[in-house]
Design a protein that fits this description.
Length: 138
């Protein structure tokens, strides 16, 4: 072999393409760490971001469940109101029906209607204790 043809291993390695990875054979030989502070900070920031997104997703899920329960409760109260309104139409002197309507309207969020139904209950029976107690709570 001619001297020009003789190549050392080092010269052959220099001719190879550069390795784009963060940890190369050169960096290991030189004692360099593959992870820099910037990389560590980036990884930490991404981890924090993932945790925040996960917590927000859980909060949204919990709020959705709460909304579904509240909507189901409102629908149930609405059906009960319809039932007692029919009772009042069929039995206009039924004081308990008016008191039930007063309580349901109050739970539904309409305190004005609750007061009206309580007033009607007390017109039918002025000493009806449950109606008097409910009136005091309004």
């Amino acid at each position: 072999m001619k001297p020009q043809e003789k190549k050392t291993i080092k010269s052959e390695l220099k001719e190879l393409p550069k390795n784009p990875r963060g940890i190369t054979e050169e960096s290991i030989a030189q004692g360099k760490s593959g992870l820099t502070w910037k990389m560590l900070i980036s990884i930490f920031a991404i981890l924090i971001l993932v945790i925040i997104v996960s917590l927000e997703t859980f909060d949204i899920y919990r709020n959705l469940n709460h909304m579904k329960k509240a909507e189901a409760e409102r629908e149930k109260i609405s059906k009960e109101i319809n039932f007692w309104e029919n009772e009042v139409k069929n039995h206009p002197d039924y004081r308990d029906a008016y008191l039930e309507l007063a309580v349901l309207e109050y739970r539904f969020g309409d305190s004005q209607k609750a007061k009206e139904f309580t007033k009607k209950t007390l017109e039918l029976d002025p000493i009806y204790k449950p109606a008097l107690d409910f009136k005091m709570s309004l």
